[in-house]
Amino acid sequence: MMTPEKLQGSLEKIRTFLQSEILPLESEFLRRPFRELLSLLREKRGKAKALGLWTPHLPEKLGGLGLSLSEFARVSEELGRTPLGHYVFNCQAPDIGNMEILIENATADQKQVWLEPLIRGDIRSCFSMTEPEFAGSNPVWMSTAAVKEGSDYVLNGHKWFTSAADGAAFAVVMAITNPDAAKPHHRASQIIVPTNTPGFRLVRNIPVMGHEGEDYLSHAEIRYENCRVPQQNLLGQEGEGFTLAQQRLGPGRIHHCMRWIGICERAFEMMCSYAARRQLAPGQPLASRQIVQEWIAESRAEIVASRLMVLQAAEKIDKEGSRAARQEISLIKFFVAGVLHKVLDRAIQTHGALGLTNDSLLSYWYRHERGARIYDGPDEVHKSVVARMILKEYGVEISI
Ligand SMILES: Cc1cc2nc3c(=O)[nH]c(=O)nc-3n(C[C@H](O)[C@H](O)[C@H](O)COP(=O)(O)OP(=O)(O)OC[C@H]3O[C@@H](n4cnc5c(N)ncnc54)[C@H](O)[C@@H]3O)c2cc1C
Fold it and tell me: How far does residue 333's CA lie from ligand 1's centre (Å)?
């Protein structure tokens, strides 16, 4: 597939930078708590800024590269080859989604206070929607409420899996503001809550797959207990929370899928090079076994297919918007997450016991990316969206 000319120089620069500055940090990253690497990473972020490649997803007037979604997708794949890539260039989830939402919906004051420092990388943010007591796959069903009192909103509720909340300066919180709205989609709003507001209680970083998680790599349980913020912290209009959430999900799924393809490419390289050098007996590399050759061929086919599917979806969003690309977005979300798992699993199997050790990026990704088949909509939800849309053409209407 051709790389757009506009991107060639930038991709080359990113590749060289990651190779020389970031990949050498990976073994430290696997061994030490993330917080201990922060000052080193700050220095690397400074270098990414100096290269002119900081926040590549943003329009040029905000300091980014002014790329379309399908162009940024190529950058996201390149950055995905290392777990530190997106963070070092300040285009990591959930900040990237929050930046996009703030650019489209924030007031001038909100932009000055929250968006500008977020773009500079001075602060981080999180997105707080899912609740333990309600099925997250039904995004209009929740209990956290924001009630107006004087000139404030008072929030009460219980959230979890608020990624990167530990150390974030603010949360974008989804809360019910209009419980009597006729349509469930019009009941919730998004409200900016600074994390130092009294009543914002980070209960714990939830241990996930054997790891505590901290800072940007955390998933927090949070209680909002009479948490009071000015009504000016409302994002967009009251009752628009679900619409705003939908806005972030189309591009967000492209970003994730391309990052996963970057992971697949790296795991694939590791699989091939280990199969070539690991000797089963003198003169008999692992790669001489047909089953390993099958893993290599299947993985290559699936990665290429994934990339084409994601770029096609991104182009459709670029031309016609996320709504028109609903089916394509759901297709890539479950398909590429599945490919990611197959490729990682084959790469681990190729490495034998070595693949399971904490010294290996493979085991980090296997653990860390299991969530890919759950967040931003579980596989089953996306499969059902696709099937429903197709079956509608056959006269079958299936309600959720
Ligand atoms: C790593 C990670 C990071 C996350 N980060 C954030 C974050 O930053 N902010 C945030 O607000 N949330 C976040 N989440 C939460 C995520 O959005 C939810 O986990 C997701 O929406 C699914 O909701 P649930 O976990 O409540 O599962 P449920 O909705 O309870 O579903 C459970 C299971 O039921 C099945 N299922 C659900 N619906 C259907 C259906 N229609 N048909 C068939 N089967 C179905 C699926 O297999 C699903 O896995 C994160 C989750 C993970 C794993």
Answer: 13
> What are the tens digits of pLDDT across the range 141-188?
999 999 999 999 999 999 999 999 999 999 999 999 999 999 999 999
Please tell me the distance between residue 130's alpha carbon and the centre of ligand 1 in angstroms. 8
Backbone angles phi, psi at 220, to 5 degrees: -100, 150
Tell me the best of 130, 218, 259 to mutate to test the pocket of ligand 1, counting ligand atoms within 8 Å of each CB and taking the most.
130
pLDDT of residue 313: 97
pLDDT at residue 200 greater than cutoff 80 = yes
Q: Are 98 and 34 in contact (CB under 8 A)?
A: no
How many A from CA of 232 to the centre of ligand 1?
Answer: 30
Q: Residue 113: helix, strand or coil by DSSP? A: helix
Percentage of the chain beyond pLDDT 90 is: 94
Which of the four pLDDT bands, split at 50, 70 and 90, describes residue 316? very high
Which of 137, 172, 373, 388 to mutate to test ligand 1, by most ligand atoms within 8 A of the CB atom? 137
With a 6 Å cutoff on the Cβ, whether 219 touches ligand 1 is yes
